[in-house]
Amino acid sequence: MNGGTVIVIDASVAVKWVLDEEGSEAAFALRAQQLAAPELWFVEAASALWSTASRRQISAPEAEERLKLLRSSPVQSLPILDDLASALRIANELRHPIYNCLYIAAALRLDTEVITADRRFVVACKDHRTFKPRVKLLGA
């Protein structure tokens, strides 16, 4: 399936590079690959860092520093508008939030797969013959 060498990752994978949590080692291993993600991943990653700081697991300045690290990570950011119409169709078909479906749309366009740490995202695709093989759980 991975016609090229690029793999689409979502923000749940990227934040594991800067937060020590389950799956961080598997997420780091992916950095050896060519990675891409819809540019929305920065917003989702920043939201995850904010959430972690709001739970006082890291400080606000640490969250900002970790966001800077993510900005220099080896991920090719893909323009959202390239995949937005496709993502909307996928979201309607799966009855799943469009922000996750942007990752599927990008993977379909690039003829590759999405790696995610979001089990709910994987479950949402489990009964769909086109999307199930495209969305893989990190470390599985």
Topology:
Elements (H helix, E strand, L loop, with lengths): L5 E4 L1 H4 L9 H7 L3 E5 L1 H15 L5 H12 L3 E4 L5 H11 L3 H13 L3 E3 L2 H7 L9 E3 L3
Parallel strand pairs: 1-2, 1-4, 2-3, 4-5
Helix pairs in contact: 3-4, 5-6
Describe it.
It contains seven helices and five strands, in the order βααβααβααβαβ. The chain is an alpha/beta fold and 140 residues long. Strand 4, helix 7 and strand 5 form a beta-alpha-beta unit. Helix 3 runs antiparallel to helix 4 and helix 5 crosses helix 6. The two termini are 16 Å apart.
Briefly characterize the structure.
The protein has 140 residues and is of the alpha/beta class. It is 49% helix and 14% strand.
Q: Please list the strands of the largest sheet in the order they lie side by side.
A: 3-2-1-4-5
By DSSP (H or I, 4+ residues per run), the number of helices equals: 7
Catalogue the unreliable spans: none
Q: How helix-rich are the residues, as a percent range? A: 40-55%
Strand content: 5-15%
Mean pLDDT: 94
**End-to-end Cα distance:** 16 Å
Rounded radius of gyration (Å): 15 Å
Number of strands: 5
Q: What's the order of the H and E elements?
A: EHHEHHEHHEHE
Largest sheet: 5 strands, parallel
Label the overall shape.
globular
Structural class by SSE content: alpha/beta
